[in-house]
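<context>
A single protein, sequence plus fold
<entry> Chain with its tokenised backbone below
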Amino acid sequence: MNALTDAHEPLVIRRADISQSDAQSLIAALNAELSARYPEPGATHFRLDADEVAEGRGAFLVAFLAAKPVGCGAVRRIDSGMAEIKRMYVVPGARGRSIGRRILFALEDEARNLGATRLVLETGGRQPEALALYARAGFVRIPAFGEYVGSPFSICMEKIL
């Protein structure tokens, strides 16, 4: 049975260095998927710097199934009470197995550890799977914030922790 379809394999989620090959391959796959969904100039917000996910400021997490990287996500502290979810992704062959939900919950724990009481994120209308995941996890729509203000493709959401 394929490692991505074996329901008995444990999922392991751990912090990772954003510059490592596993992290970079997941980020590249996410960027390619987002570019395909949003081909318009200026429609994507890919930036995430390593210092934003450094210990004490944020976290970059990678999910492994049978020792293969299958998903990722990041959280960065914006201010003393607010953090932002970034770079959520699950490889297509591992979708539908609640991996995204488990990454999201792990990121919520990281945000709490950073002292955040409010968690925000940005996604887009062409990502119905993401919108459904976030809504099921208790996120609600809010006005655009930060770099997303004025973006016609951005949908911003928040969750009070």
Summary: The CA atoms of residues 36 and 112 lie 33 Å apart. Confidence is low (pLDDT under 50) at residues 1-5. The longest strand covers residues 68-79.
